[in-house]
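[DERIVE STRUCTURE TOKENS]
===
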Amino acid sequence: MSFTKAVRLLKPVHGALRPSVSGLYRSYSAVAHARDLLETELDSIRVAGTWKVERVITSKQGPRIHVDGSTGGILNFCANNYLGLSSHPEVIQAGVEALQTYGAGLSSVRFICGTQDLHKNLEQKLAQFHEREDCILYASCFDANAGLFEVLLGPDDAVLSDELNHASIIDGIRLCRAKRLRYKHMDLSDLETKLKEAQSSRMRLVVTDGVFSMDGDVAPLSGICDLAEQYGAMVFIDECHATGFLGTRGRGTDELMGVMDRVQIVNSTLGKALGGAAGGYTVGPKPLIDLLRQRSRPYLFSNSLPPPVVGCAMKAVDLLLASNEIAQSMTAKTMRFRNRMTAAGFTIAGTAHPICPVMLGDARLASLMADDMLKLGVYVIGFSYPVVPKGKARIRVQISAAHTDDDIDHCVDAFIQTGRKHGVVS
């Protein structure tokens, strides 16, 4: 049927398809009202100084980048590119080869026609890397967190979650029907109290970030595992800001704390240290992974990871399985930044993690200082509410294995100059 004939068939019959004037008025009125509400909310964000501007990068991700509107190379100190693998030549080449061999994408979810040997190989390597029985891939770790809890936990179970867990964990827990208990941040005494409250539950799951991304503090996993074993609970950790570089072999927080055999479930990402493209995963007991393949909604209803992404991640994991040299280089660089900044009078949150939050308190101050840092050739971003609590604004610096000592010193010097301008340090 031609387009013209189709239009003639759709002509209104006795006004049946013609909207009334009053109906159109109500529709336009509703849209106008919604726009007013949205603009008011947007104005409040601008007034509060928490408006987030997306700077445009015109180069590969790396320790030095090019930013639209700035001249020359800019030092990047706010990427999750902890190991510098986002633009590693071998990682890039692996992605190119996967694209040429396996195509751009699968146009399918995994269980229909979206599973290639490439996906199964990466799952096997990630299970090997974490020393767990099996692995399942997701489009992101947000999806992995969204897909886990409602499958594992029912109304007769209890989940005990650190109050500062990542938003994706919080959202994932909201989807499940288990009894929800929040314990104070990294407070083992409060966790024990909540575990006692949950003793009548069928299963108990303690849920924590391995590393808390806004503050760079590391969960007390040894104590958590002690309590979990005492009160018959399992332990889950989100390792997005630990996989690849914490622990002697870069296996993560559980390796760092010596509890790899006491943590049952690990979720992590391919979008940070492991190549930085996209993707997340769950590793754990095989029966759990098998059940997630059958019932996890983000897995069942999302397209498979594109082959180039899988190829890049596989090469990143191969590099880490072959050597721990990159992971071990992080400590000295992290402490160089932390020690120099502390000596200059700045307050740096967290401990020895590459996430180094420069605490400023005021949202507008954090934004202005970040803008001034860019003028001095250093790319950092101010973090404020709702990403962090009100009154806790900061500039979150992230150290990469690809940064040189000169890069770090330049960043510190820029902070000192900017900090003096705004009265933060003397």
Remarks:
- The longest helix spans residues 21-48.
